[in-house]
Amino acid sequence: MKNAISRRVARACMALLLPAVFSAAFAQGSDKPVEEQIKAVIAKTYDQPGKAVETAPVVIVGDYALADWIQADMGGRALLRRSKGAWEIMACGGNDFKKVKILSHAGISNDTAKKLIAQLEKAEQSVSPERVKRFGLFGTPNDPRLAGHHSAPHPAH
Fold first, then answer.
1. 147 occurs within a structural domain
2. Closest CA to 39 of 18, 61, 70, 17
3. How many domains does the chain have?
4. Contacts of 146 (CB under 8 A, 6+ apart)
5. Alpha-carbon distance 4 to 8, whole Å?
6. Quick check: is 15 in a domain?
7. Which terminal residue of the chain, N or C, has fewer Cβ atoms less than 10 Å from its own Cβ?
8. Which residues are the signal sequence here (predicted)?
9. What count of Cα atoms within 13 Å lies in the side-chain half-sphere of residue 88?
């Protein structure tokens, strides 16, 4: 009896999960340009009602990418990798993603890290300085998500 229930639960889970797995795989299909695949992953992960993520520029070297993004008053950079043909977000950050040492700590070769940073620097030349400044905010003391954190009264211990 217990095994029959377990099999039914397993089949029900598979029935629910398979469409999601296949739709995610097809959403990143090779018929879509790589930059658009990356933008779609970021949008699917972080878009909120009334707060769509604007992603640009995006630079790609091999199986790694850096993507600048802005969402409402927040900005940052996403580090992505292609694994088994699908792009995935490794981490989000700010200006530290323009440091070879930081990217190498994420498992990226120094050569690939240097190329990513050089391409990003070049791509950002066509972006307004104000916008570029916002890309560096994520995770810094100037991050709008942290505003007022230290000024709020702390509860008594």
1. no
2. 70
3. 1
4. none
5. 6
6. no
7. C
8. 1-27
9. 8
Enter the tokens of residue 75: 């900005």
Structural domain boundaries, residue 102: 24-142
d(CA 16, CA 5): 17
Cut 0.85: pTM above it: no
In a domain, 92, yes or no: yes
CA–CA gap between residue 85 and residue 31 (Å, rounded): 12
Residue 59 near residue 116, CB atoms below 8 Å: yes
**Length of the chain (residues):** 157
Backbone φ and ψ for 80, nearest 5 degrees, come out as: -125, 160
Whole-angstrom Cα distance, residue 142 to residue 139?
8
pLDDT digits (tens, 9 = 90+) for 65-114: 999 999 998 999 999 999 999 999 999 999 999 999 999 999 999 999 99
